[in-house]
Amino acid sequence: MLLKCCLMAIIVLAAALTQSTSGFGFGIVFMAIMPFFFPYRMCIILSMSSVLALQINTIIKLHRYIQWKLVIVPGIFSIIFGIIGTNYMTKTNPKLLSFIMGFFLWILAFYMIFLASKIKLKKSTFTEAAAGSLGGFTGSVFAVGGPPMAAYYNSVIDSPNHYQGTIQTYFLINVLNILTNNFIHGNIHLNMIPFVILGIICSTVGTQIGLRISDHISMITVRKLAYNVMLLAGTYDIIKGIIHLI
């Protein structure tokens, strides 16, 4: 119990630092490591509940910069596909989900390393709906719903404050929807409460540290480290999945 708490504290701090300095990445770091120590469905809950503190803290500070028109359509579609994704995640074997997660991490790492900086999306209702749908589904199944919306908002928002305020508002809608759906499906249990509280505390601390050092840390270094973690974790999940299937 104590060892798991210490491991979770370290991972949440690292995930919060990543998200508070780059706008997304909490779920990527968290889900790349935590399923090694906790049941898959429990990791989804812990990731979503931990990141809540980060999102609320950021929104309170940057509420004046939120571009609500860019949140409405993605938010609606993320709710719809979040419901679909949670239903799929609940009915699917956790070992299979972990196996799929391995491939997802590899694909995501490839995208972030080679394609993310080259893709510029145009502002349109269709793009907002597509990004919101993909983010809602992957967020509910893998707790990683940030990259689609990060790609879109990076393309249409120039100001860092407007970007952070808007994307964290979208994430808050997505997270609340996923937690509600998991509660309805009976995936949230009382034995998770100590870990939820720990996650919220560490996320708050990590966010404050991240906001203070964001001007003094190289995001290239942070992202490279996160991508390497994704590749290693993805490889492990794929190998483990193959062994279980044999």
TrEMBL record:
GO CC term (a single one): plasma membrane
Assigned keywords, A-Z: Cell membrane, Membrane, Transmembrane, Transmembrane helix, Transport
TM region(s), chain numbering: 28-54, 66-84, 96-117, 129-153, 192-213
Alphabetized InterPro entries for the sequence: TM_pro_TauE-like (IPR002781), TSUP (IPR052017)
Location in the cell: Cell membrane
Domain of life: Bacteria
Keyword Transmembrane on entry: yes
Membrane topology annotation: Multi-pass membrane protein
Family listed: Belongs to the 4-toluene sulfonate uptake permease (TSUP) (TC 2.A.102) family.
Protein name: Probable membrane transporter protein
Species: Candidatus Gallilactobacillus intestinavium
High-level lineage: Bacteria, Bacillati, Bacillota, Bacilli, Lactobacillales
